[in-house]
Design brief:
The protein is an alpha+beta fold. The chain has one domain (16-114). It has helices at 16-39, 101-110; strands at 43-49, 52-59, 66-73, 79-85, 93-96, 112-113. A 6-stranded antiparallel sheet has the order 5-4-3-2-1-6, with helices on one face. Helix 1 crosses helix 2.
């Protein structure tokens, strides 16, 4: 007997390739999201998303196996918030806070952090000239 994933059950055979393509695209998008998130600095930062400035706080507690992100549009009301859990050796688990997963994935993939010049400031800290 040939086994089909649960999400294929009830689909006509001509619908299955489209479902495979959607699943592969979703996995690719999620892996790009995880990679992009790992490049963002822990702590507070500002940057741009969809033409608006955002303040972003990223927390990565030691030994907690979770990454937390909270972002708010500066001068606006839009919020992006989620937790990304790493449970054992399995795939990370994304838990958006009362919003669609697509919104948080798009935010992280498209967020452009401000690049602060720390080269000319004492102790390499931005904004302390």
């Amino acid at each position: 007997m040939f086994w089909l994933p649960r999400w294929w059950q009830g689909l006509r055979i001509d619908e299955i390739p489209d479902q495979i393509d959607m699943n592969v695209a979703a996995i690719d998008s999620f892996m790009r999201f995880v990679t992009a998130l790992s490049t963002l600095e822990t702590g507070h930062q500002t940057g741009h998303f969809n033409g608006h400035r955002y303040g972003v706080i990223i927390e990565r507690p030691v030994n907690a196996r979770v990454t937390k992100l909270f972002a708010r549009a500066l001068g606006g009301s839009d919020i992006v918030s989620f937790n990304l859990f790493q449970v054992g050796e399995s795939q990370p688990v994304l838990k958006p806070c009362e919003m669609a997963s697509e919104k948080v994935i798009d935010f992280v993939l498209q967020f452009d952090p401000d690049h602060q010049d720390t080269a000319n400031s004492p102790c390499g800290v931005a904004g302390t000239k």
